[in-house]
Amino acid sequence: MAPEPRCRICGDAVVEFLDFGTQPLSDAFRDPGDTAEEFTYRLAVGRCGTCGMVQLTEEVPREEMFHEEYPYLSRGSSVMREHFRSLAERFLTTELSGDDAFIVELGCNDGTMLKTVAEAGVRHLGVEPSGAVADLAAEEGVRVRKDFFEEATALDIVAAEGQADVIYAANTLCHIPYMSSILRGVTALLRPEGVFVFEDPYLGDIVERTSFDQIYDEHFFLFSASSVDEMARRHDLELVDVERLPVHGGEVRYTLARPGARKRGAAVEELLAEERGRGLGDLAVLERFAERVREVRDDLVALLTRLRAEGHRIVGYGATAKSATVTNFCGIGPDLVEFVCDTTPAKQHKLTPGSHIPVRPPEVFSDDYPPYALLFAWNHADEIMAKEQAFREAGGRWIRYVPDVHVV
Ligand code: SAM
Ligand code: TMP
Q1: Does the beta carbon of 344 sit less than 6 angstroms from any atom of ligand 2?
Q2: What is the CA(376)–ligand 2 centre distance, in A?
Q3: Which of 9, 106, 346, 388 is the Cys-Cys partner for 71 at CB 3.0 to 4.6 Å?
Q4: The pTM is what?
Q5: In the Cβ-directed half-sphere of 267, how many Cα atoms lie within 13 Å?
Q6: Confidence band for 4, pLDDT divided at 50, 70 and 90
Q7: Top-level CATH class of 74-284?
């Protein structure tokens, strides 16, 4: 029997509420001729009864996910490019406006955010373990250390470069199970008045939208204001600000500081009160979410099966890491979805993990529009709908499954 899962924040028991079964790595796109057995793990989510943190019950070794061939690129979305540019501008006029300011970004990926900081001539360092994407950041003039951030990395940076005014992480902190080491590292690296800012998918939005595909190997934690508040306190930090973000299907940007270093903003109490009001941390609420997830799965499979039986072609749009959970949980393969189009060079001409649906460049989609496109990259819907108007004009329809299964 597998050992009882223990919370990666406080060490107490984690109570499972949703099981997706055996899953492949969400970013392990596969060469068509490859017959090697795929790495699999059991994807299930639970909630710690003591500190309330929602987290996966099984951990995938980090080197399996973040390595030379890790394919995700921050620059793949124009909305995200603008999001990071405007945040960098904000940092430059606030936290980084002093003499010899210094910012460290964890998971800087291809340098999309730090590029603006580098161009302004401000001292910065990206910490990025995935080799190929780190090289892209360096090509943008960003200083990168190819490494996993953890306590030892932080101590090394402090010794070589001193403490930072800002430590920033987007869509990265929730990927890291070894949180005690991370937060000890943050505490060592942060200047006394500095801020640790991170943004990740928000549990509140995931539950409200039934966006179960936010749950996969790389998303180890599903943060909420209350669980981050508790996590910060246990590591001698304080949650001083929260900001809801529309990107990636609903995120929260959290700001942590040393206790007393910053005034706590009113937004923190407001979001904590909202979460209490809706019972976001209650197991019963999470169990109802799990029931809705199973309903969405059944509805989606029924719709795709009917459309295929009627002879319609269906193509997937966006070979997201998220869609690994959808295709493998629902049993969606090339019999239902002909191919998935995606702009990421490292994903094209490969097969989706586990479900083995071919990935094609976007031109293959526009060269011969199918009647139906299954929008896996639903978190970029506005951007995609705007640029794919010709698909609609040709009579094409989008299949969506967030917050429920519908055709538009
Ligand atoms: N920050 C970018 C963004 O929001 O578009 C990239 C997010 S990507 C989903 C997650 C990144 O975190 C990957 O580039 C991965 O290599 C990196 N990563 C994973 N573990 C890390 C760690 N311990 N320290 C620093 N980066 C890490
Ligand atoms: P993400 O949801 O993790 O950001 O991944 C989005 C994926 O969708 C990524 O592989 C790039 C792809 N994509 C497209 O193919 N076309 C687009 O217009 C956008 C915005 C993303």
Answers
A1: yes
A2: 9
A3: 346
A4: 0.96
A5: 12
A6: confident
A7: alpha beta
